[in-house]
Design a protein that fits this description.
Helices cover 52% and strands 15% of the residues. It is built from 11 helices and 12 strands. Residues 274-487 form the Histidine kinase domain.
């Protein structure tokens, strides 16, 4: 029995614990936050409107007092010889809520009526040249004071009067301002609530609901990323949310496709790991039999036995590295200068085209062309391309399409670069598969194909620092391989020459 391929498990490395993702909060959501944000913003706007409103109310009430005083002054001034009974004077002052009324005409100031004039006047308010800032500060000063101070209001007069003066109490005017403020606050609260509700509904339907839909799609896709049920269906919106929905849908589809591809790779790796051990033992037994077959003196056996041994050695080596594509990188190429013609001949014989007369074989390689490459890896690259070409020609012929069936390999050197081309006269590469031509499981169009040939070939060519691509505008399919020579350090060459 062969030794098992299992590796000991490292107990010191603990498996990574899945990160705990916070779930969406069931408390105050985005809608509630928007509502709580909208209400204070509307209230701030109401406060900014209240300041000029209360100042304007205060100025208007003062002007009303001045207008009423001007009317009373006309009545008092119209009395014969200015003689007005005290009872009538008090009634007039009470009607305009004033304690005294005086006017100035020319150089004379005249007291028209008075009743219980206070000993001191707390504030003088001149309405003739009052600015907006003075109106605001004066209104708030009156509201913040306490008590019933006496104030003097100076305003423009009527007729020949230059101005009119009124002495009145501050408390009634302050009460009116309080009443106006209370009514304004109630109206502002109602407007704030209605505005916040309308803004909330608008934001909820325009932004919050689509964001919840995006969030639900993300959470559902995270729980089961391999199911198409969690992929969001984009709406017809043309704004940023519509763009986000479409981008999220494309990202989810790409991620689901990639995860399915990874799952297929994992399944392939598991299946190969199960058969790898037994297949390697069978190939080893076949190698022992081929060694015994090489000792048979038959000339035909002596001719084909080395090729059989070489094929079995390659098969065993491929079996050993079967898992390298899915689990690790390919081994670094063991590069050296090799002649390309023997490799091409071996590829033809291994692909079974030496005895196949239905497919013409053309090799147009420069005489003595050498390539700086790993011979086994270059053999694998060419074999994959030739087999793909042969299978394309067979499929093309089985569909009833006539024409010449030919595989052509050309090789030349341009300076320090070797260029190889493998072409066929088949149907060519379909346009829809060209975008993912060198990706695993993307290009196999025949039953039983794995879609790994071109992916492995591209990986091996890139390991040599080269490039492989499909040549456009040719009959059938033409793949060009470019392998540059390794740079040579002049110092190492000089050292070798000195040692020689």
């Amino acid at each position: 029995m062969a030794a098992t391929d299992r590796q000991p498990i490292q107990d010191t490395d603990q498996p990574d614990q899945p990160a705990i993702r916070p779930r969406g909060s069931r408390g105050l959501g985005l809608s509630g936050k928007l509502l709580l944000l909208t209400i204070p913003l509307v209230m701030i706007a109401a406060v900014l409107l209240y300041v000029p409103a209360i100042a304007n109310f205060w100025v208007n009430r003062l002007n009303d007092r001045v207008a009423a005083a001007n009317t009373a002054a006309l009545v008092l001034d119209a009395a014969p010889l200015g003689m007005v009974p005290d009872s009538l004077s008090r009634q007039i002052l009470k009607s305009i809520n004033a304690r005294a009324v005086a006017i100035k005409m020319g150089q004379q100031r005249r007291l028209l009526a008075s009743d219980n004039i206070p000993a001191a006047i707390e504030h003088d308010i001149d309405l003739r040249d009052m600015t907006a800032w003075e109106a605001i500060t004066g209104s708030f000063r009156m509201m913040l004071e306490t008590g019933n101070q006496a104030i003097r209001i100076v305003g423009p007069g009527v007729g020949n009067a230059q101005f009119i003066e009124i002495v009145t109490d501050e408390l009634p005017l302050r009460k009116q301002m309080y009443r106006f403020s209370r009514n304004l606050v109630v109206v502002a609260l109602i407007i704030a609530v209605l505005t916040a509700g309308l803004v909330y509904l608008a934001l909820h339907y325009l932004f919050v609901r689509p964001m919840r839909r995006l969030t639900a799609s993300l959470v559902g896709f995270h729980e089961n990323p391999e199911s198409s049920a969690g992929i969001i269906v984009p709406s017809q919106r043309s704004d940023e949310i519509g763009v986000a929905e479409r981008e999220l849908s494309d990202m989810q589809r790409d991620l689901m496709s990639m995860l399915n591809q990874k799952s297929r790779l994992a399944a392939l790796g598991l299946a190969v790991s199960k058969i790898n051990h037994d297949l390697r033992n069978l190939l080893a037994s076949a190698q022992l039999l081929s060694d015994q077959l090489a000792s048979v003196p038959d000339p035909r056996v002596q001719r084909f036995a080395p090729k059989l041994v070489r094929s079995l050695e390659r098969a065993i080596a491929f079996c050993q590295s079967t898992l390298s594509y899915g689990r690790a990188q390919e081994a670094a190429p063991d590069r050296r200068m090799i002649l390309i013609e023997p490799v091409v001949l071996e590829v033809r014989e291994t692909a079974g085209l030496a005895s196949d007369a239905s497919i013409a074989w053309v090799a147009a390689i420069e005489r003595g062309l050498a390539v700086d490459a790993d011979p086994d890896q270059l053999f694998r690259v060419l074999l994959n391309l030739v087999r793909n070409a042969a299978q394309a020609l067979e499929t093309h012929a089985s569909s009833g399409d006539g024409g010449v069936q030919q595989i052509r390999i050309t090789g030349k050197r341009e300076g320090a670069v070797a260029i190889l081309e493998v072409s066929d006269t088949g149907p060519g590469v379909p346009q829809k598969t060209r975008e993912h031509l060198f990706e695993a499981f993307q290009t196999s169009g025949r039953p039983g194909g794995s879609g790994l040939g071109l992916a492995i070939a591209a990986e091996l060519v890139r390991a040599h620092g080269g490039d492989i691509h499909l040549v456009e505008g040719t009959i059938g399919a033409t793949f060009r391989i470019v392998i540059p020579d390794r740079p040579v350090e002049l110092l190492s060459i000089r050292n070798e020459r000195q040692r020689a």
